[in-house]
Amino acid sequence: MPVAKPESSDSRVIAHVDMDCFYVQVEQRKQPQLRGLPTAVVQYNEWKGGALIAVSYEARKFGVKRSMRGAEAKEVCPQIQLVQVPVARGKADLNGYRSAGSEVVSILSRRGRCERASIDEVYLDLTDAAETMLAENPPQNMEKIDEEALMSHILGLNNEDGSDVKENVREWINRHNADHRDKLLACGILIVAELRMQVLKETEFTCSAGIAHNKMLAKLASGMNKPAQQTVVPSSSVNGLLNTLPIRKMKQLGGKLGISLQTDMGVNTVGDLLQFPEEKLQERYGINTGTWLWNIARGISGEAVEGRLLPKSHGSGKTFPGPRALKTVPAVQHWLNQLCEELSERLCSDLDQNKRMAHTLTLHARAYKSSDSDSQKKFPSKSCPLRYGTGKIQEDAFNLFQAGLREYIGFYGVKTQGSQYSGWGITSLSVSASKIVPIPSGTCSIAKYFHGQSLDNVNAEATLLLPPGVHSGSECYSELNSPKAEVDFPKEESWIEDTVPDLDLQEQKDLSSSLSKTQDGFTQDISPSSLSGTEGCLEQNQNKQERYMTKVEGQFKSEYKERKGKRVKDKGTGTPSILELFKSYNPYPFGSSLSQELKKTAQGTDARLTIEENEVGKEEKPMHGSSSRDEGDGRREVWSYNIDEIDPTVMDELPQEIQDEIKAWVQPHKWRPYNNTARRGCKISHYFSPTKNS
Ligand code: DCP
């Protein structure tokens, strides 16, 4: 079946904004004396001066590269300033970078729909702002054009030797006879220049941008002139840009698919793809991939800018390369506790600041066995419903690990308990929280949550269900019976949408089988269990959280009283606090529709793997997998995933080359046999190579 082609006469104005040497800029803002000096940020592991993860443009001039270690960088640039990435709990602490990224996002989102694509990258859909400018104050009538806009690079603009480049740009912007699409881009130039200036003024950070009619072209353009510049791709220049663009530079073609195109089809530049009819590409790579390739060869991409300002998942991970591999259960538990503590902190601040809760906890590990009879076997990732509270997350993550380890080594394999070396080693560990959705805004939703129950009933039920079962560390999870509630979000409860417009479309997609979307808003699962651990946040952020919960409780009580009127009798301590109710409820109960639906969603699409930010420090990237467990036995679900079923849509916080690599892994199997070499020396394995840091 042919796939619908995106509009080729695309009149959107899309910008891709990318911060320049981001971590370096963050560190330079902290230490202004480093500004203008060759500087690099190095990772936590100090071996040979630590691996460089961000390099300033001053240092790049000396040949310093991200692939180097500090010692090598010193050789090529003796005056280089090396700043260690902040450390917490024995691992890289990226919180400072995350919040610096958020500062930028909050500025960029002022002029249009904004999608936070990674810790330092943003897409903007500026179409409406451009149309408005064109209608009210068109660039062709502007006498004074901002200097920053005049410094734009317009692809295809003829800047002959000796011509005044800025003057050429001014003329291009001022053209009366330009077509509508170019006029919109001219508006885009002005808007983006202004936004970038705003970012600089308010955050002291510089960024670069690409401005085009779609995301793909904008992204390509943003990296073309760095730092602190912007590049524009008029539609008349698209062919020229793509004709010479090496195929592997294209987003998603850095891995196996790109290799296959080169070796099997002789395609070296994106332009080379033009010679193939769509049917031929479909025949070779499947309908969707074939059509996608046909489209990108022509610069066509229908991908929308998602309104998403907040991350889709949270994760915490660490690598243990070479001799630092974890070889005993207590060692793993120690590190899991650290990772879970960090994850829990981030979940609490997300709950506190954004009123969002995560629903799925996933553990991912990489491992080896010293008896290498089955050396290809991967450590299975495991997921379960997420319970709030550091202790609970630690407990659940440890159980997930134990379950994974048993599967990995087999029941009759080596020892899994005790502190003696057991014939296996863990080289990376990570925990992630995904399926993050806004919580209902207090009164109405909470009231609906308890719809039809008197407080006394609720209290009694809560008492009966107390406490959640303590997991023994085996795969036998406790039987849980509490009812799960579904809460409607009517449109008027729009504060969530206001704060995070159109939040987390991907999450909503993920949840599509469990959450029924309505015209008025959306129906959302809120489990008492997932709220039950919010006391974990209290531990960390007691006053704030208490205020929040007290507010919710107060709202709930007054709403409840209003609705139920005389039925509510004030029995003093007999009236349960929301907090207590939340605390006393069990995690997602077996048999609840949420667990059923999560399970359904998990099949083929959800249970996630987080490859982790590791010491190198890039954001986590959870990936999808498949459910492996039958839930009919009344235990809590544990899902495992299969790396071959990773969903590439949830990895966008990774370095591009790694995203490309993972995406290549998950491309349709049909062209895999042609690429036997691809995994060898691939970037993802290099990135997590046990020897990398050793
Ligand atoms: N990062 C990391 N590990 C990597 C790649 C990147 O920790 N392997 C971090 C450090 C970077 C930040 O992510 O500062 C953003 O990565 P970019 O690839 O966007 O690179 P920079 O912003 O550092 O430089 P550029 O100006 O080239 O975009």
Strand order of the largest sheet: 7-8-1-10-11-9
Largest sheet: 6 strands, mixed
Query: Mean of the pLDDT scores?
Result: 70
Could you tell me how far the N terminus lies from the C terminus, measured between alpha carbons in angstroms? Answer: 51 Å
Number of helices: 25
The total count of strands amounts to: 23
In the predicted model, the low-confidence regions spanning at least 5 consecutive residues are 1-9, 443-531, 541-655, 665-694
How much helix, percentage-wise, in residues? 25-40%
Structural summary, described in words:
The protein is an alpha+beta fold. Among the domains are: 75 residues, MutS, DNA mismatch repair protein, domain I (3-Layer(aba) Sandwich), CATH 3.40.1170; 51 residues, 5' to 3' exonuclease, C-terminal subdomain (DNA polymerase, domain 1, Orthogonal Bundle); 123 residues, Dna Ligase, domain 1; 220 residues, no CATH class. 39% of the residues lie in helices and 14% in strands. The strands form 7 sheets. It has a 6-stranded mixed sheet. Strands 12-16-14-15-23 form a 5-stranded antiparallel sheet, sandwiched between helices. Strands 3-2-4 form a 3-stranded mixed sheet. Strand 5 and strand 6 form a beta hairpin. Helix 16 crosses helix 21. The N terminus and C terminus are likely disordered. The site of 2'-deoxycytidine-5'-triphosphate has 16 residues, from strand 1, helix 1 and strand 3.
Features:
694 residues, alpha+beta, MutS, DNA mismatch repair protein, domain I, DNA polymerase, domain 1, Dna Ligase, domain 1, 6-stranded mixed beta sheet, 5-stranded antiparallel beta sheet, 39% helix, globular, disordered N terminus, binds 2'-deoxycytidine-5'-triphosphate
